[in-house]
Amino acid sequence: MKLLLDVHIKRAAVTALKKRVAAIDVVHLADWRGGAFRNAEDAEILKLCFEENRVLVTYDQRTIPSLLRLWAAEERPHAGVIFGDQQSVPANEPGVFASALVKLLAETGEMTNVVRYLRRESD
Fold first, then answer.
1. CA-CA distance, 113 to 74, in Å (whole number)?
2. Exposure pattern of 48-72 as b/e (b: 16+ CB <10 Å)?
3. pLDDT in tens, 12-46
4. pTM for this prediction
5. Which of 3, 41, 53, 101 measures 20 to 30 Å from 24, CA to CA?
6. Are 89 and 96 in contact (CB under 8 A)?
7. Confidence of residue 122 (pLDDT cuts 50, 70, 90)
8. Which residues on neighbouring strands pair with residue 28, listed in sequence order?
9. Is residue 58 within 8 Å of 82, Cβ to Cβ?
10. CA gap 35, 28 in Å, rounded
11. How far apart are CA 106 and CA 1, in angstroms?
12. Is 51 helix (H, G, I), strand (E, B) or coil?
């Protein structure tokens, strides 16, 4: 599975994930495609993620959910989205974030048009 971490997640999470799963294909939005999409519209990022079959991992629960509802109504596919939130899995703690994400990925199959949520490791 290929992942794109949004700007709300520390870049150090990429390293933390690779320490846990060496073969993981993960990139931070600030580095993805040379950083050209750091300030891009959500729809453009999701479109390109679908083209690359890359799951978006984001803490943006303000704008992404409404975009996903619109795309569902239009029967427009996406490669999958994994949401996090600061109360359950802090984005500024790369090790905690990486552990929660690796656990979720181990429980997850095909992600096309799927939305999942990060949980604390104890959940």
1. 12
2. bbbeeebbbbbbbeeebeebbeebe
3. 999 999 999 999 999 999 999 999 999 899 999 99
4. 0.94
5. 41
6. yes
7. low
8. 5
9. yes
10. 9
11. 11
12. helix
The residue-averaged pLDDT of 93-97 equals: 93
Is there a contact between 16 and 97 (Cβ–Cβ < 8 Å)? yes
Write the DSSP assignment of 78-118 as a string of letters: -S-EEE--TTTS-TT-HHHHHHHHHHHHHT----TT-EEE-
Return the percentage of the chain with pLDDT > 90, whole number: 87
**77 to each of 49, 112, 115, 118, how far by Cα in Å?**
10, 7, 12, 21
Tokens standing for residue 8? 């709300």
d(CA 61, CA 81): 11
The residue extents of the domains of the chain are 2-117
Residue with tokens 């990429």: 14
Q: How many residues does this entry show for the chain?
A: 123
- The pair of three-digit structure tokens given for residue 30, joined into one six-digit string: 């600030």
Count of C-beta atoms within a 10 Å radius of residue 113: 16
